User: Fold this.
Amino acid sequence: MLLKIILFELRYRLNRPATYIYFGILFLLSFLFITTDVVQIGGSSGNVYRNSPFTINQTVLILNLFAAMICSAIMGVPVYRDFEHRFHEILFTTPITKLQYLLGRFLGSYLIAVLVMSGTLVGILFGSFMPYIDPEQVAPFNFMYYWQPFYSIILPNVLFMGVLFFMVGSLT
Assistant:
């Protein structure tokens, strides 16, 4: 039953345009940061490559501050939505425990939030391969430059913010 709830939440979120809009905002900000000098987010100035590990980490950290609002919109509403539409009365007549229900809603929303927040890394990745960027400003591709901020910044930040917003949405 837990898997069904997770899959329901994933299907619901993937059919919502807001999910793609949130991803697009983070993708576009990081893409413009890499490809133009107009958007300044991190520290790629002087002899620092636009896609260096330092610049990628700094960009992900700064955009995660902005992404806290997006995370609240994703993680704070799944349980509230059921109570707002009074669906919880029907839901709890089925053979489902509160733990399965809450964990399923949380994990489904968490996976979507991680997907949305990874838009920053995807934007940097795509931006670094644009043909109009000066090749002397871009380092060669290295998977670890993108993997390290994903598992050390995005996953824990989304987990912390997600637990906080999910708890507030569930308890209020």
About this structure: The mean pLDDT is 86. The two ends are 25 Å apart (CA to CA). The CA atoms of residues 51 and 140 lie 9 Å apart. The helical segments are 2-14, 17-35, 53-75, 78-84, 88-91, 98-117, 119-128, 143-171.
